[in-house]
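Fold this sequence, please.
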Amino acid sequence: MTVYGIPNCNTVKKAMDWLAENGFKPEFHDFKKKGITAEQLNEWCDTFGWENVLNKKGTTWRKLSLEQQQEVIDQHSAIKVLLMNTSAIKRPVVEVDGKAVLISFNEEAYERLLK
């Protein structure tokens, strides 16, 4: 299991705490430091939808110019923005055996999918 995110994100902290409390010992991948590939982002978008991978509620999205925001119209344009602004990726993304299974943190979803 790998958890993708950034360490100072409260949602990532909640997810990591839940996982630890439930006996999981995931590897943590800080995508601000270690990066992320377009291939991985495409897989996540295929799984969750690009609109769910792109965090439009976060500070990073709001700091983009209106022009940059308006250019995001599909998966390809979203990935282009996400590669340049990894903090705009909704987090955490949890992969099990190399397959993305969860995005963000919802305790009920974690219970249902991981227990």
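The chain is about 50% helix and 15% strand. The chain has a mean pLDDT of 96.
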